[in-house]
Amino acid sequence: MAPIVMVTGGTGYVGSWIIRLLLEKGYTVRAAIRNKGNLSKVRHLVDIEAGTNGQLELWEADLLSEGSFDDSAGGAQYIIHTASPFTLQFRDAQRELIDPALKGTANVLQAATKSGSVQKVILTSSVAAVHGDNIDMTTQGLTAFSEEQINSSSSLDHQPYSYSKTLAESKAWQLAQAQNQWQLVVLNPAFVMGPPLSSRSNSESLTLMKALLGGKYISGVPDLKFGFVDVRDVAQAHVLALENPGAQGRHILSAEVHSLYDIAQMLKNIYGNQYPLPLRKAPKWLVTLLAPAFGLSRKFVRRNVGYPLQFNTDKSRTALQLSYRPFRQTLKDMVAAMETLNMH
Fold it and tell me: For position 93, which CATH number holds?
């Protein structure tokens, strides 16, 4: 019988690709979702299942409801926990980011322990749990961030999303060490880009691409660097971590580091004048001044714009045997998928 993998956040941008790969490999996948009656959110997964040898099961569960993952975890051999809010638009960081990330992780991992059957849990963390601000690399005297670093500069008031990922991962290690039934493997992806599988995906990655293509930054874009990784490579890393008995610890996933200006240049190179792309870098003083209009704090601008950034990804390449797609291809495939799905 095919192994059973319970996946949280399965209708999401990353979760959908993970489920697709697992179904193509013949696994039985239990997608733990908030409302299985919402067919528009799961239709793309049902369509994917039809063309594979795998089996898809839809189970209802809520991150904030204690014990709600117990049923879907029972009898499963593996859990992939991707569900965690990623939004930069929030009113109450504690309620919208911290609580679901922290309580959700505790609920899912406690369900793994109660199951008696789960052998391995793969947690989708983030490089946000490795560092909070780009300046951290300079202040810590590093040439690149590695799996050893833990974000110590984020808080509820500054970079609360990064703070939520740091707290959730820390909670996961704590729960993993308190039992000896299942093993925890953590993946720390950089900014995830690439083609969505559903027009209902509402990830910040798609928001950023829509803003770039739609002319939001036409007058200039901040000199802000991120590590980027293809959503398909992130999904592949989850499957490799699940199937590799030697996989352990954290794994930074990042293909290339680029500034937003670099991305605009790459897109211009591919599409010419088809989109109103930014033509220049906005000076830092101007970005600082206008920060609130773009939903950024001035502290964020001060500590991130203009600073170098680098990640050491040796572990993902050697321990997981992951090979990364070129980022130019990621951008091309992402725009093509968004056009097909009428998303910009």
Answer: 3.40.50.720
Q: Is residue 83 part of a domain?
A: yes
For residue 88, what pLDDT is reported?
62
Q: Is 207 exposed, middle or buried (0-12, 13-18, 19+ CB in 10 A)?
A: middle
DSSP state of 292: G
pLDDT at 91: 77
Q: What is the mean pLDDT of each run of 10 residues along the chain (344 residues)?
A: 92 95 97 82 92 94 89 96 73 84 94 96 97 97 98 93 94 96 97 91 85 90 96 98 96 97 95 92 92 87 96 98 97 94 76
Q: Which domain holds residue 175?
A: 4-193+228-255+310-325
Nearest alpha carbon to residue 16 among 235, 338, 273, 213: 235
Which residues have C-beta within 8 Å of that of residue 53, sequence separation ≥ 6?
23, 24, 26
Q: What is the pLDDT of residue 86?
A: 65
In terms of Cβ atoms closer than 10 Å to its own Cβ (0-12, 13-18, 19+), residue 258 is buried
Q: Is residue 148 part of a domain?
A: yes
Centre a 10 Å sphere on the Cβ of residue 273 and count the other Cβ atoms it contains: 7
Task: Answer whether 51's CB lies under 8 Å from 60's CB.
Answer: no
What positions carry a catalytic annotation?
165
Look-up of token digits 């559903």: 198
pLDDT at 63: 85
CA 292 to chain centre: 25
What total of structural domains would you count in the chain? 1
Q: Residue 344 has what pLDDT? A: 64
Per the domain annotation, does 91 fall within a domain? Answer: yes
- Separation CA 12–CA 83 (nearest Å): 8
Token output for 239: 């499957």
Looking at residue 294, its amino acid is: F
Q: Which of 11, 23, 10 is nearest to 239 (CA)?
A: 23
Within 13 Å and on the Cβ side, how many CA atoms surround 339? 10
CB half-sphere exposure, 217, CA atoms < 13 A: 28
Question: What pLDDT does residue 85 have?
Answer: 64
One-letter amino acid at 27 equals Y
In a domain, 181, yes or no: yes
Distance CA 300, CA 295 (A): 10
